[in-house]
Amino acid sequence: MALETIEILNGVLMIILCSISIYVGIKIASTYFKNKEKNYVFAGLFWIGLVCPWYPGSISFIMVLLFGKGLTPVLYFIIGNIFAPIAITCWIASFTGFLYESKQKLMVFIYIIYAFIFYILFFWALTSNPELIGELRGPNQIDVKYSIYIGIYYFTLLITILITGFLFATASLKLDDREIKMRGKLLLIAFLSFFFGGIIDAFILMDILWLIIQRSLQIISVIMFYLAFIMPEPVKRFLLK
Fold first, then answer.
1. What CATH number does domain 5-136+145-239 carry, 1.20.1300.10, 1.20.1070.10, 3.40.50.620, 3.40.50.10800?
2. Residue 145 phi/psi, 5° resolution?
3. pLDDT tens digits, residue range 189-198?
4. 0.85 exceeded by the pTM?
5. Would you call 61 exposed, middle or buried from its count of C-beta atoms within 10 A (0-12, 13-18, 19+)?
């Protein structure tokens, strides 16, 4: 079946989002070899995993172009959900490592337990009735509509990201270092952009305009996250004027 305009646009934007995110995640994680700071590794892995819900859509889009058929629902659901619990756990490890090191082990442990609960429910649903997870939508099924329980899980992740981003920005604004303050603001913008992009994806019926707005917010969030952790000198001079 021929791809519709909105499917082509969605597929291209998903590929751009995933490609930029993987690059940014690797770039941030690789700074470990320069500064030996493991929190950057966690932050990089977090962003690579954070966009995992859009990996299967990108893969399906490419498969439809090449072979006329995308991923099966089971493969789509696995690829789109398997990394999210790991990603948020990595972010909690990074976030607490920067600001609340004394509470890092406890917080990471809590999110590991939360991840196990998610995995148990997810794979139970996957093996008993995949429709409990969601359904693929569109003529070529390159997009997905997740069930309420998956939606609730991702909403809790978005809330976690929003709260930690706010705490990170608040802590940075209390310092006298202008660069650290700017990094905190950029991180908050990154998480706010991603949060609202996720809300649009979950609750607004998608058309071309809303699709462009959503993906633009998500791509902006990737760029802001990158600048918050790795700020090139020209950008630093411009922002700190």
1. 1.20.1070.10
2. -120, 110
3. 998 998 898 8
4. yes
5. buried
